[in-house]
Specification:
The chain has a two-stranded antiparallel sheet. It is mainly α. Helix 1 runs antiparallel to helix 2 (about 25-60) and helix 3 crosses helix 4 (about 120-135). It contains 4 helices and 2 strands. The chain has helices spanning about 5-20, 25-60, 105-115, 120-135, and strands at about 60-70, 70-80.
């Protein structure tokens, strides 16, 4: 999917609204379109990242990643191999980490944990275990040689 096509479509939609009024309405619509064009890419990537995380949480042996190369955005399925032997259960958690989160991220974590019927602590532990077992099983790279940056950015 080309991000620029989506952004241009939004910009065009706002411009069409501006054509419904006089010169002042058209000028305001142009300003709104410029703001939308600047903020929409990061908001779209946030949405796609959340969707990929939700789908990944339901996959027993893999995860979905968002890949952004230039203007192209795509989903990729990453299969995680299961080990022949069951992993040894972790010892009773005793280490502590202080973690500072934005209120928005904290709310999203609480929402996801609640939706899965888990405490926030249990949900975070499970998420960390999945993430660390995936990176240690694959050697921390994508298998194509070299390192790969995962996640999303905003500009």
């Amino acid at each position: 999917m080309k991000m620029s096509l989506v952004i241009e479509g939004l910009r065009s939609d706002v411009a069409a609204v501006g054509e419904l009024g006089d010169e002042t309405v058209a000028e305001v619509a142009d300003r709104i379109a410029a703001i939308v064009a600047r903020s929409a890419p990061s908001r779209i990537l946030d949405l796609l990242t959340e969707m990929a995380a939700e789908v990944s949480a339901e996959l027993p042996e893999g995860r979905v990643e968002i890949r952004l190369v230039g203007d192209d955005v795509e989903f990729a399925y990453i299969h995680q191999h299961t080990h022949a032997h069951a992993p040894e259960p972790e010892a009773e958690p005793s280490a502590r980490i202080t973690l500072r989160l934005s209120e928005h991220l904290k709310s999203r974590v609480e929402e996801r944990a609640g939706a899965e019927g888990l405490s926030v602590n249990s949900w975070i532990l499970r998420t960390l275990e999945r993430g660390t077992s995936a990176s240690s099983a694959s050697g921390g790279s994508s298998g194509r040689g070299g390192s790969r940056l995962r996640g999303y950015g905003t500009s």
